[in-house]
Amino acid sequence: MPPKKRNNGTTQSKELKSSAESSSTDKKESPELSAKKHRDKDAEFVALCKSLHVTDLVCDRAWTLWKTVQESLDEVTDSQIRLWGACLFVTVTDMDVTCFTLTQVLKAISLNVKQFIALVRKMDVNLDTISTRVNSALSRLEKKYDVTLALYKRFEKTCKKILVSDGKEKETVRSCWTMFLLAKGRALQMEDDLVISFQLLLCTLELFIKRCPPDLLQPLYQSAISKVQSPPTRTSRRNQSKAKSRPPEPEMDVQLLETLCKENECNAEEVKNVYQTSFSAFMDSLDLLRSPDFPQVNDLNQQYEEHYLKTRDFDGRLFFEGDETVLAPKVEIAQVERTPKKNLPEEDAVLIPPQTPIRVTMTSIQQLRCDLNSNGDQPSTNLATYFKNCTVDPTQDVLKRLETLGHTYSQRFGQAVGPRSAVLGMQRFNLGERLYYQVMEAMLKSEEKRLSVQNFSKLLNDSTFHTSLLACALEVVMATYGGSNFKSGGYNHGCGVDSAETDLCFPWILDVFRLAAFDFYKVIESFIKADPTLSKDIVKHLETCENLIMERIAWRTGSPLFELLKQEHEGGAAEQVENPASFSQPLQHNHTAADLYLSPVRPGLRVLPPESPSSQAAPQPPTQPAPQAAGQNPRHPKSNSLSLFYKKLYRLAYTRLKMLCSYLLSSHPELEPIIWTLFQHTLQHEYELMRDRHLDQLMMSAMYAICKVKSVDLRFKTIVTAYKNMPNASQETFKHVLITEGHYDSIIVFYNQVFMQKLKTNILQYASTRPPTLSPIPQIPRSPYKFPNSPLRVPGSNNVYISPLKSARMSPGIMTPRSRMLVSIGESFGLTNRFQKINQMVNSSDRSFKRTLDLGSTPKPLKRLRFDVDGQDEADGSKSNGDSTLIQKLAEMNSTRSRMQEQKMKEDAESRKE
Question: Residue 182 — φ and ψ, nearest 5°?
Fold first, then answer.
């Protein structure tokens, strides 16, 4: 049994030693450290091992690792004892033995969590110190720490609003926090899920408020407690004793829970579901359902101690103690700005709440739910009309598919998150279902406008299209709830690490729906264009998903990409997958999701740039093949989806290569186009090298090969070290490379045994006097996606921006946490004094003088604004004489809007022609 007292070091040591003995890989070895066996080691190191109760085997291996680290470090800047602690952590993690917890080693070497994680990663100088297992453990610890820290800060802030501060509440608050930690540990397999953990925290607070003496509560929560609490069950309290078929459910105070949710900007229905499933089961395990009192502090501590020793990470109770091992890194927080800063008097100052992880996440969820509130769980009237216009009505297939996939999704969600979380999974699936219908309708409207047809029978009866669209909608929902996370490197090669905490990260949804990544990629761009309400973060998340597919996931064995490539190369569709001559052209195309999912039914008609005269010839409608000229050999259909995939792949590949060259070859700029030529040749002609591998592995190999034949001294270690600094780089990319089937090794082994052997003849050509022709350099766009909601700066101004009008779903304080004032034309803005303050802000003396500094004249005061019924802006009084800066601004805004409209009309006209 775990120790009853929290800080009983002796009892805890016995528990740890017992665990180490049972988990040791060497059954014959005594868990007790023998000092005689370690006379060759530093006495302080042996003392540290003894204090952490490690075995002789762990001690030996950690000392060997220390010697390796000592040799690899040019200069040991950290104290030896801290590095020893890091070596012990790496050793026990690799061996998967139970010797000590993270908190115990942190206290032994006087470091906090963040410092320790940074130290362990710093040790990996030669890139061979930290294994896959250790790296995964560090990532899990870091995320769990960040989530727990954010939760504790919100808990501390919320308790101050709930309880009267008189010194008596400290033990109550301590018990509440410990109970929450225990509930999180037992109810969730993913303890780093911020949203569900926060919802559990609100459930815990509801319980403690109900059982707290009224004199300790603030008035808001005294009045929030229902006088008669009704359980959310079909069994009344009087008949609970008769219902012996199932345990009684806890009485949930709905009014109190809703108050907590409102104060913390959390959806009440979701919290109620968490209460009725996960939290009620947890309370039942503690036998708290019938007891009206607080659980005993000692009992909570004892049960949490057991959980803490089992997980072997940090002790969450130390947040309450303010312990140094869990202190947050010191970050200077900027002073909260007022709105507007200069001209508002003190009494009118509006303080904007700071953005915290929980606030950001809750705001994003609230925004998503508001966007989808008007949508039903069934196809809208317009969408149903599209279904009925099809030759074969897909309605029943769509509904049946949603029912099947919904059941699959909720089951897999529950397996990943917790045994009682399937209900939460179905809630999120319902949100994704609404988004799926919304985006599908927008896509069909766009296709109808583009093609002037209403019968989309072939597309709407394509199961892969529907599954991909639904998967994309669910990925948006999951990213909104859980942050933009991805599996580290995406490798799952039996490293033995429990990856439950990353199960919901992309590409989890593809595995759940058994959907090919190449098919999923086809819908991403059309999805983004069809939903202008997507936030920048979500657009970036989907763009990252697309990049992951192109660089790795689409190249897995079994992917339809290989079959398409095989047909393309053997069927004579084209000599090349993508003509290198098009690299210098912008990434412009008119392919929609409909084109890509029905491809390669139609012939390959290359979209030329707008300035090309050939672009005036309109292509055939996508449902009809282009006629062949008389006497011309029949041309095989070209895959639009494959062509676009390779266009994006080449641009992604060159972007990565250019960045790596800037790190390593700035003194040899002539090598970059040569490396690119080899890299591009490999992707085009030796695409089998990408099977179950990563794009960056070929990139680094191509760079090393060209430097070798050009006699440039560049070692693989140097390349890998620079690669680690690239965005989204993972050590798995260079440590875990496929050599032969089922066998993985480092990238150096891959280069010698695979890459060099396959491309030796081609590589040596670059050393000859007649090297191959260089491939054109792709034009790199900033991003293939536009952000329609991004504010645009008015020309000639540094402070005036315009953006599309959004629905009034969020308060200005939430929408613009760092701005000074939000002006939304067309919405109710308040009293006239607000407009006077806008005038004061715009007409501030410093801005007026800056604008007229070169004119040498005294600035004139700006005229008062009046917003008329039609939402147009005009000045009071006579016509403008050109002296008003505001009128100039409005004229510039009008001109900008006109140009934007003209450009939009021009683009629509070109789309119709094509």
Answer: -70, -40
* CA nearest neighbour of 207 among 292, 98, 85, 126: 292
Cα dihedral 480, 485, 491, 495 sign: negative
What span, in angstroms and rounded, lies between the C-alpha atoms of 697 and 714?
Answer: 16
Q: How many CA atoms lie within 13 A of 650 on its CB side?
A: 28
796: left (phi over 0), alpha (psi -120 to 50) or beta: left
Sign, CA torsion 107/113/117/119: negative
Whole-angstrom distance, CA of residue 777 vs CA of residue 532: 32
Reference 641, options 557, 575, 552, 549; nearest CA is 549
| Alpha carbons 14 and 3: distance in angstroms, whole number | 9
Would you state the pLDDT for residue 622? 38
Q: Collapsing DSSP states into helix, strand and coil, what is residue 217?
A: strand
| Spatial contact of 148 and 319, defined as CB atoms under 8 Å apart | yes
User: Is there a contact between 41 and 69 (Cβ–Cβ < 8 Å)?
Assistant: no
Q: CB of 264 within 8 A of CB of 154? A: yes
Q: At what angle do helices 560-570 and 640-664 cross, to 10 degrees?
A: 100
Distance from C-alpha of 281 to C-alpha of 286, rounded to nearest angstrom: 9
Angle at alpha carbon of residue 889, lines to 883 and 893, rounded to 5°: 145
DSSP 807-874: -S-S-HHHH-TT-S----TTS----HHHHHHHHHHHT-HHHHHHHTTTTTSPPPPPPPEEE-TTS-EE
Q: Cis omega (within 30 of 0) on the bond before 507?
A: yes
Collect the ranges in the chain with pLDDT lower than 50. Answer: 1-30, 228-249, 332-351, 488-502, 573-575, 601-634, 788, 807-820, 826-827, 845-883, 914
Q: What is the pLDDT of residues 177-236, one digit of tens each?
A: 999 999 999 888 887 889 999 999 999 999 989 888 888 888 888 888 875 444 444 433
Q: What single letter denotes the amino acid at residue 129?
A: T
Nearest Cα neighbor of 490 from 651, 273, 730 is: 730
Place of tokens 């905490």: 501
Q: Give the separation between CA 144 and CA 134, rounded to whole angstroms.
A: 15
The counts of H helices and E strands in the chain are 37, 6
Non-local CB neighbours of 80 within 8 Å, separated by 6+ positions? 42, 44, 45
Cα distance between the two ends of the chain: 74
Four-CA torsion 257, 259, 265, 268, nearest 10 degrees: 40
When computed from its CA atoms, the radius of gyration of the chain, rounded to whole angstroms, is: 32
Q: What is the DSSP string of 727-767?
A: TT--THHHHSEEEETTEEE-HHHHIIIIIHHHHHHHHHHTT
Q: In angstroms, what CA-CA distances link 229 with 201, 233, 237, 253, 703?
A: 20, 12, 10, 5, 70
Q: What angle do CA 142, 474, 599 make, to 5 degrees?
A: 120
Q: Using an 8 Å Cβ cutoff, are 645 and 561 in contact?
A: yes
Q: Is 393 left (phi over 0), alpha (psi -120 to 50) or beta?
A: beta
C-alpha to C-alpha distance for 116 and 135, rounded to whole angstroms: 13
Which whole-number Å values give the CA distances from 745 to 442, 552, 583, 631, 754, in the listed order? 47, 17, 34, 54, 11
Cβ atoms of residues 73 and 65 within 8 Å: no
Q: How far is Cα 76 from Cα 64, in angstroms, rounded to an integer? A: 17
> What pLDDT does 227 receive?
59
Residue 8 vs residues 89, 309, 889: alpha-carbon distances, Å: 23, 13, 71
Residue that the structure tokens 């979701």 belong to? 270
Q: Is the peptide bond before 340 cis (omega within 30 degrees of 0)?
A: yes
- C-alpha neighbours within 13 Å on the C-beta side of residue 432: 29
For residues 2 and 517, what is the distance between their CA atoms, to the nearest angstrom?
Answer: 47
